[in-house]
Amino acid sequence: MGNGSSDHHSLFPCLPSFQALHIVILGLDSAGKTTVLYRLRFNEFVNTVPTKGFNTEKIKVSVKGSRQTVSFHFWDVGGQEKLRPLWRSYTRCADGIVFVVDSVDTDRIEEAKTELHKITRLAENQGVPVLVVANKQDLRNSLSLSDTESLLALGELSSATPWHLQPACAIIGEGLQEGLQKLHAMIMKRRKTQRQQKKKRCCNKSGNYKV
């Protein structure tokens, strides 16, 4: 627990994951990213400090409708403006992205929108599923889901980018498990599509050599 240091994990975060799904948690500073991470890890609220580098945890989550558990390797990366250029290093091998938004901080929603669209438009992130967590929904003055979707312009994300908007309260954990279920489903759907496309390409290539 705590901020990670700059080592080979930060340069190649996909290396130690192996069979675990590589998930990167992003968002502006103070959106609640680390609170999300440790609520998932310990199932309780943990006081956090601003992340100056990254936090990483492996967490097993039960899959709805089966006895299967899925191992998620989460990378929670600092959201301060000076750290955002580093996000790309962490998303390079990502199976999915969790983007946490402060539903109360309406003054920075445009900034959050800019960063979300910037990271999803990167060539290496095309098609990577995105779970947008509308955090702090327990507060009276939080944005509604429809307003959040509109202000973040989620409908304008690339057609290749599957996404789901999940209302949540990280402090008590409400909505987080449901969000991960949705993210897992999107990741599995993408993998199935990729397998089918690969199989089709192999068949087409094989057919070219037929006499």
Automatic annotation (TrEMBL):
Residues 191-211 are annotated as: Disordered. It comes from the Eukaryota. InterPro entries: P-loop_NTPase, Small_GTP-bd, Small_GTPase_ARF, Small_GTPase_ARF/SAR. One of its GO terms (molecular function) is GTPase activity. One of its GO terms (cellular component) is nucleolus. The keyword Metal-binding applies. Mg(2+) binds at residues 34, 51. Coiled coil: none annotated. Keywords: Cell membrane, Cytoplasm, GTP-binding, Lipoprotein, Magnesium, Membrane, Metal-binding, Myristate, Nucleotide-binding, Nucleus. Residues 191-203 have a biased composition (Basic residues). Transmembrane segments: none annotated. Small GTP-binding protein which cycles between an inactive GDP-bound and an active GTP-bound form, and the rate of cycling is regulated by guanine nucleotide exchange factors (GEF) and GTPase-activating proteins (GAP). GTP-binding protein that does not act as an allosteric activator of the cholera toxin catalytic subunit. Recruits CYTH1, CYTH2, CYTH3 and CYTH4 to the plasma membrane in GDP-bound form. Interacts with CYTH2. Interacts with KPNA2; the interaction is direct. Does not interact with ARL4A. This is ADP-ribosylation factor-like protein 4A. It comes from Echeneis naucrates (Live sharksucker). The gene is LOC115050772.
